[in-house]
Amino acid sequence: MDLRQHIESNPKIMFGKPVIKGTRIPVDIILEKLAHGHDIDSILTDYPTIKREDILACLFYASLQIRNEHIYAIAS
Does residue 1 register a pLDDT over 90? Predict the structure, then answer.
């Protein structure tokens, strides 16, 4: 998937937060809705300007962000 077709970050739009291309809808809002149990169809109803592929791109973007994250165990 070419994220550049779906996700953009521009300092003039939402202070540079990643958004769905051509909108002011931040990626994190879409991820939060999915995390709270909203399904793709309900998100598409809430945001009729986006497509299913945009939502899948948000998930892919998130996976890429944490792919190389270093995790350190914290002793309790």
Answer: no
